[in-house]
What we know:
Strand content: 25-35%
Distance between the termini: 42 Å
Largest sheet: 8 strands, mixed
Structural class: alpha+beta
Radius of gyration: 21 Å
Low-confidence stretches: none
Helix content: 25-40%
Number of helices: 13
Amino acid sequence: MITHEVEVLVAGLGPVGSVGALNLARQGVQVAAIEATTNGATDLRASTFHAPTIEMLDKLGAADVLLEKGLKAPVYQYRDRKSGETFAFDMAEIADRTRFPFRIQCEQHLMSQDVAAKLAEQSTAKVAYGHRLLFVEQDADKVTAYVETPTSVERYVARYLMAADGSNSVTRKVLGLGFPGFTYSEKFLCYSTRYPIEDALSGLEYVNYISDPKEWMVLLRVPNLWRILVPAAEGDDDGMLLSDQNKDEVFHRMLGDKAQVETNHRTIYRVHQRVCESFVQGRIGLVGDAAHLNSPMGGFGMNSGIHDALNLGDKLVDILRRGGDPELLALYDRQRRTVTNSFVQTQTIDNTKAMSEGWASAREGRRAQMLNLAQDPAARREYLLRQAMFTSLEDAAAIQ
């Protein structure tokens, strides 16, 4: 069996793993990064990059694709579908806090593929596609991973493993780590289309959260496309949901009976709220979807995963290059798991509840909250910093 020796093995080359690996390689750590697919995932789910994430990528020299190809969205909007009432938030108000006072709307795979290409150029890195993690084991000194390649099974011996191997993480399962939480009963149906929705619905921003107890939706603009997320009942047949008839019904309710909308993609997926019982076991650290899953409301999942990877990676650099205490891995677990529970999970659950309730069941309370934010600059600034994820990063850094 062929054996590769490396300082850190990174499993997964999505946005989280690719950024984590590049951060390590740029700091002189010998990295091997493996990816089960042959050319990286092209999943359309995550498309929002928050300001601190853009700052982190820019520091790595990896924000150019986002800045060149992505759409800058300084304003995002909450809208009640029934009444048409809107509340907008402008990140220009926190321009004193960041060089990037906006979200960037861009398909995640454009960034991750660019970062992986940069990683492959590093003398300290090896990148291997079509390599699927089968099993891991560890002892006091090393991690051993068994990897299926197109022609054989190979062994990677590493001092540490960064597991960015997704929601169905082999690493998490092999380690026997619990993944408590829940799955929403409803399905989520996602469309993408080039149809000019902005011409039919006046006042849209690039990011729009539209609440309605009957059929809430999220409208996100990415380069060249609108992405539309709507709920579907758990018992609805998938074939029916993906049908032309259902597509027409969704867009007719949204845009009127005369709208003839062609879609580029139609996808159904389930949404989970889960946090792994530990982000670290021995010499193995879990990041991103391998460690936590959440509703897409707010665009926190991918961003928090990137924050995981950079937090863990910097601690591995301290251990490998500066004689840092291996207990730094326990600190990574405390910091990132704490804010995942206190912010990412809490906020996405609340956001999803607000979308599905609309203003109807808790109308006055939610409307009063929005009006307060609209009228109180200090409260609005606090809200903007929290939604942009600056607050969760500061909270994590304060944990020792």
